[in-house]
Amino acid sequence: MSPETTHDLVARLAARLGPGGLLTEESDIAPFAIDWRRLFPGRPACVARPASTAEVADVVRICREAGAALVPQGGNTGLAGGAVPDASGTQVVLSLMRMNAIRAVDPVGLTLTAEAGCVLKAAQDAAADVNRLLPVSFAAEGSAMVGGVIATNAGGLNVVRYGMTRGNVLGLEVVLGDGTVVDGLRALCKDNAGYDWKQLFIGSEGTLGIVTAAVLRLTARPRHVATALLAVPDPQAALRLFTLAQDELGDAIQAFELISGLSLDLVARHGGLRNPLGPAGWYLLVEAASSLPSLREAAEGVLATALEQGDAVDGVLAESSQQAAGLWALREGITEAEAKEGRGVKHDVSVPITAIPAFLEAAGRALAADLPGARANAFGHMGDGNIHYNVLAAPGQTSEAINQLVHGVVEDFGGSISAEHGIGQYRVTELVRHRRPGEIALARRIKAALDPDGLLNPGKVLAR
Ligand code: 2HG
Ligand code: ZN
């Protein structure tokens, strides 16, 4: 794109969006130009901030006429560089932040309709105000926005009970790459009328269309919550406890998180948060919730059995919601603590739940043999098979070498190289290596059908 074309494009967008709708000053656009981890610094031509679906559609049309690429962005909390522009100075960041309304909450029909720029926490709070639960939840929920949560099919802490974002989206409104608005904002639990096209956009990271609003599923809000931290000798014991929890607490389990000893050391060192239990190789943060009054008794029973059979060597069941929040702060502080420790190479992998202990052992062995000095900071959502096998690299070790080693072990266990964070820019090369040729070819056909000019978030998910 020539400088004149970029100049004309910016002028047209400014005219359409009016004051506050377009950012062009270096200092204004800087926060939109780089990801949270500061791994992918970019430089956009400008940041468009439409305030309605009609404005989004016009931005898309204006960009398309100029041949300019668009990079949709919500709260910019992603960990795979999927929402930031390249460094060409020609891409337009399309921030959904001004489309932040909650359009409707229906506590009887159990739905909430929100615009893409609504912060996830605000949507959760709106559900809680009418005594309902919006079950998608993760550490960045105070900044992440509904559109980005959907575009990345975010996972998080409660997937073991409520599934991924995909399972919690009932209806969707999207703007296609040619500016067409597709309104599928139906508040229906059951809808088998033709292709379920919304699934194409959920998890497509803004490469097939732009999510502008959604109908989300709400659930009952359990009255009682039991939260426990357990120290466990090894991942095999953690797996036995997963079965025990399934047997005794069943569908009341809403989080089953595995945390390495190193993770809690880092949270203590960099976040100043004290681990209330003694030193151990591994920990479990387990949470169950139910409206039945017998929950606490059942949870106490599980903790007692776990200690008795030696699968837990220490444990605490929170006595209050503040104490529970303290336990969660340990878990939710890992990402920031890891960032302060040094260069972490992140992996967001999944393997069958049963294979988690063997996977951890095999990955640890491979790391020790091939990349001496590297430290594994493993933690994650054991209850859904998703482990963040992050590696704190030793000097001279490349991300590529570490990725290939870890993902090779994942492959051996029939796993996935991205369970919940998506591909973004971070895993584009690794995706090609780990998906079958037929799967990549199909993805390219879908991309070509919906974005023939390649203007929607180019270079993300699929290589250009
Ligand atoms: C979590 O589970 C997030 O806390 C972030 O998915 C994981 O920092 C990470 O690698
Ligand atoms: Zn996670």
UniProtKB/TrEMBL annotation:
The keyword Flavoprotein applies. InterPro entries: FAD-bd_oxidored_4_C, FAD-bd_PCMH, FAD-bd_PCMH-like_sf, FAD-bd_PCMH_sub1, FAD-bd_PCMH_sub2, FAD-linked_Oxase-like_C, FAD-oxidored/transferase_4, Oxid_FAD_bind_N. SUPFAM superfamilies: FAD-binding/transporter-associated domain-like, FAD-linked oxidases, C-terminal domain. Residues 40-221 form the FAD-binding PCMH-type domain. Its cofactor is FAD. Keywords: FAD, Flavoprotein. One of its GO terms (molecular function) is catalytic activity. Belongs to the FAD-binding oxidoreductase/transferase type 4 family. PANTHER family: BLL6224 PROTEIN (PTHR43716:SF2), D-2-HYDROXYGLUTARATE DEHYDROGENASE, MITOCHONDRIAL (PTHR43716). This is FAD linked oxidase domain protein.
